[in-house]
């Protein structure tokens, strides 16, 4: 086997390096990346009206690319590097370029693989957070405003949440808040930020709000399937090692998602009389989100109970409370990101504080004894520690909510000084063609013309009784 002249064999596989863990981490990262591209690109592009298919899919694709450039430029170090304040417990890291070879090949802050692997793994989490925010803004946000929003929000909101909860020097991490794989950092953040940004951008047109049918439900299911299966990497990669805790996290993830989907489906049948495909997808998503902050620290029976609650509580908030609370009715959250991610993410964080099992906590966090769910604290004579854990979980929710309401509000108001946040009424009436000069589908219908081409000209129009020739065009009869 040959090696590059500047890299000796022992340098390519140093003593701390584990090939199996590195391979799994890169695989898990790729699975999470596939959730966004093509998963959410397909889901967004198919669940909206035909006239918004290109714009919605492109908002997701742009965010994925823009986040990566910002991530290697400064975002990764701000999320996991040295504290900007020079203390051992902080909420923000120093901005710095993370492409230096010496840095990339060094062992990451956790796991037996290099910083290059950790950086890619953490990037796909940051990217999907921005894409989830886009779900609340589909159908009316100015694309140029979105281009500014992505790097600004990543820099001034995501990095603070990630450092506080996931960095080894983060103040909430050191306090003992449990966020196994992003219930707070990703889902609660995206739900609150999406809802806040939707308030500032304003609603879709009245016509779109009254009727917004998916343009392709089967394709929507394909995107949803990629999202579901990709969650194997989402939660299975967060122990940073290919161990039994990763296996438990994967199984708990799928059990909770399936349970939640079924509960949402049964509630739709019970109250509306019909099994809704879109409703089933919403239930799947709330189950995946709910288990995320607890995936590797709860037992299988707890995952089922969490699935029951994630299929019913967000259902109630979306189907009942949404129609009764004025603020929820006022803000046009296109994909109901607030309910599927903010509500479900908060629910998962609270239930993690209740069901976290001490032995599983040690598998994930190490020998630290402070992590214990309230249910076990009450039965093991450690009720004070259990209530402390619940208090920390609630405090983490409060911090993420305040952080994202504030930063998203400031960012949106700065952007609107530069470009309009919202598309013009004319552009919103037209959709993709007005914004991008492109449309998702070329359909022969409604009197539209089939453009003449060398492929159609080889046929005699008389062979097609449903068409008639008018000048240089072949038009549907």
UniProtKB/TrEMBL annotation:
Signal peptide: none annotated. GO terms for cellular component: plasma membrane. PROSITE patterns: AMMONIUM_TRANSP. SUPFAM superfamilies: Ammonium transporter. Gene3D superfamilies: Ammonium transporter AmtB like domains. It is a multi-pass membrane protein. Residues 23-441 form the Ammonium transporter AmtB-like domain. The chain crosses the membrane at residues 23-45, 52-74, 119-138, 145-164, 184-202, 214-234, 246-270, 277-295, 301-322, 334-356, 397-419. Keywords: Ammonia transport, Membrane, Transmembrane, Transmembrane helix, Transport. The keyword Transport applies. It comes from the Eukaryota. It is found in: Cell membrane; Membrane. GO terms for molecular function: ammonium channel activity. The keyword Endoplasmic reticulum does not apply. Belongs to the ammonia transporter channel (TC 1.A.11.2) family. PANTHER family: AMMONIUM TRANSPORTER (PTHR43029:SF11), AMMONIUM TRANSPORTER MEP2 (PTHR43029). This is Ammonium transporter. It comes from Kingdonia uniflora.
